[in-house]
């Protein structure tokens, strides 16, 4: 079986394991592939992972693989029920997918916020949240005052939708909101109440790993700092999972090191990507 933690859905180490007190200092995190929709990229493959997400995770001390299963959500829920840690992280579409998996519904509304970096409107749940309760001094100030969270979405979950959907409300706590180009409030950061499941509608990884000058990626020292903070946070979550491959051979064959990223900076907003 696969060891794991997700992005765009990252997910954490699978496979049964003893109740955890020790840290797993060799975590491996799975990243869910995206469909290639851009015509220019189709010659390379039908699915891809942008190198941005890989570097984001690797920068915090883990290895990455591309899992061939889509059952991470079910596994995370079942693992937690049986006392095993199985973290999941959703970025942008990953955030949106989490809300669909939790509710069984497509709750997206138009919330245009494209190519714009915003300070988060943090909620009162922040101080007790897993994501932020151990944040270093100054981090919340940067997040709430500086334009460090890059938004690249046309759709989202409005604060109103969240408030009125019992399943979402029971499962997640809203940690921040923002307003779209038309002033509509959408949920920008959330975490599950009883599971290690986290979602951000914005893109923490671009601050360090995307450079197209056609877009407004935030690269200030504080933007870089918060990007590293979230990578460290999630990889630390993955270290709480003892899930692992059954053999070193199986592990080596699955790691993303077996694939070579392609240069696509001249035909996309990414620098490089892995194609499958
Ligand atoms: C900030 O979030 C609160 C809800 O937590 C909301 O009532 C308020 O309108 C938001 N402010 C802005 C500027 O979006
Ligand atoms: C993104 O925003 C930047 C800064 O506001 C602007 O210079 C750039 O033209 C925008 N790019 C697109 C594709 O809209
Ligand atoms: C993009 O760069 C690659 C690698 O240098 C090159 O082979 C390809 O022709 C370029 N494509 C375009 C459209 O410029």
TrEMBL record:
Signal peptide per UniProt: 1-16
Reaction equations catalysed: (6S)-5,6,7,8-tetrahydrofolyl-(gamma-L-Glu)(n) + (n-1) H2O = (6S)-5,6,7,8-tetrahydrofolate + (n-1) L-glutamate
Location in or out of the cell: Secreted, Extracellular space
Active site positions: 92, 203
InterPro entries the record matches: Class_I_gatase-like (IPR029062), Pept_C26_g-glut_hydrolase (IPR015527), Peptidase_C26 (IPR011697)
GO molecular function: gamma-glutamyl-peptidase activity
Pfam family, one: Peptidase_C26
Keywords: Hydrolase, Secreted, Signal
A GO CC term attached to the entry: extracellular region
Top-tier EC class: hydrolase
Name listed for the protein in its UniProt record: folate gamma-glutamyl hydrolase
Native organism: Hymenochirus boettgeri (Congo dwarf clawed frog)
